[in-house]
Amino acid sequence: MPEETVKVADVQVSETRTGTKRWVVKADDGREFTTFRERIGADAEGARGRRARVKFHEQQKGQYTNVYLDAIEPLPEETGGGGDVHDADEVAWNTAVEAAPWLIGTSNPKEAVDPEELYERLEPFKRRVAEDIREGEEDEG
């Protein structure tokens, strides 16, 4: 049974035609894992937005491959030095998005801005913030 570490981006719960619940766990890399077991579904909901260890199996049905979740274990949050490059980039993008009205120079953030222009203005700022975060982590370590 394969086992991997993923970041759980979302967990969606729906009811099937027969009345059973189905949980679809969406990883941040785009993969999806399905379970019909309530215990695993509850564990998945608790792992939303966090890194988790997943155990799963695949089953071929015609031209489709279903990926069934057999277990999910939320991992402890990482603290301290040695931060992850992706974490720094994520924090930097969030900072850039919050600063967007000032970076694009509009007093009304509801005005439409061309996506490419927005990216060209936000990306250099994001890069500088991420570099500052990484440098701060190196100074601590």
Total of helices: 3
Percent in helix:
25-40%
Total domain modules: 2
Q: Spell out the helices and strands N to C.
A: EEEHEEHH
- The residue-averaged pLDDT reads 84
- Shape annotation: elongated
How much strand? 25-35%
CATH superfamily of the largest domain: Nucleic acid-binding proteins
**Biggest sheet features:** 5 strands, antiparallel
Rounded to the nearest angstrom, the radius of gyration is 20 Å
Uncertain segments are none
Q: CATH fold name of the largest domain, please?
A: OB fold (Dihydrolipoamide Acetyltransferase, E2P)
CATH architectural designation of the largest domain:
Beta Barrel
Secondary-structure blueprint:
Layout: E1 3-15, E2 21-27, E3 32-35, H1 38-46, E4 51-61, E5 64-74, H2 85-104, H3 115-140
Antiparallel strand pairs: 1-2, 1-4, 2-3, 4-5
Helix pairs in contact: 2-3
